[in-house]
Design brief:
The chain is an alpha/beta fold. Helices cover 45% and strands 10% of the residues. It is built from seven helices and four strands. Strands 2-1-3-4 form a four-stranded parallel beta sheet, with helices on both faces. Strand 3, helix 4 and strand 4 form a beta-alpha-beta unit. The chain is globular and about 40 Å long. It starts with 6 loop residues before the first strand and ends in a 5-residue tail after the last helix. 36% of the residues are buried.
């Protein structure tokens, strides 16, 4: 049994997505040493095109790279559903695997797919106790600060613990993603 991931790869739409994952992982005791030396953020799209399109285009490449490694690696993917349902956005990622002749992701594979509805700011504001609606495309206004993202990650870590009491104001996409967040910090089994 390995007690921690030896590599962490983060595939995200933008800096806020990436920072939420990064600050969450810093809360996980087993990940701290890995984050210093073996964490790789996939380069962000640099403002060109859609962030969700960027994630979809890179997804099968990153899955293949992780599957090809002999070390214990976790791939954390965070992308917005936008005008799709959460399930439909996930299906677009699975379709990319099929399109590239790759097997579907098995339940035991170390891949965590995290999907906020319109934007990650919805999760950040929800974690700060705000009542937000997932169908509101404008939850990114006003923008969240880096400090709010860091604080939200601390709260998220608490909410993602087994048997945590999740407040009633938690949006559905975050509530359903909590077990996937736990997968990001679970020790791999070899």
């Amino acid at each position: 049994m390995v007690d921690r991931w030896s590599n962490i790869v983060i595939l995200a739409e933008d800096q806020e997505h990436q920072n939420l994952v990064w600050h969450y992982l810093k809360r996980c005791p087993a990940n701290r040493a890995v984050l210093l030396h073996r964490k790789r953020n996939v380069q962000l799209p640099a403002g060109r095109g859609s962030g969700s399109q960027f994630v979809r285009e890179r997804f099968s490449l990153e899955v293949a790279a992780c599957r090809g490694r002999h070390a214990s690696v976790v791939l954390i993917v965070i992308t917005d559903a936008d005008n799709l349902s959460i399930g439909a956005r996930e299906q677009t990622l699975h379709d990319e695997l099929a399109k590239n002749s790759q097997a579907a992701i098995g339940p035991a594979e170390p891949v965590a797919i995290l999907v906020p509805k319109w934007q990650v700011e919805t999760w950040v504001k929800c974690l700060h106790g705000e009542t937000v609606r997932e169908d509101d495309k404008d939850t990114d206004k006003p923008p969240v600060t880096p400090e709010q993202v860091e604080t939200a990650a601390k709260i998220l870590y608490v909410w993602a613990r087994p048997n945590a009491q999740i407040p009633a104001h938690c949006v559905d996409s975050l509530r359903s993603a909590l077990p996937r967040w736990r997968k990001c910090d679970a020790a791999p089994h070899t």
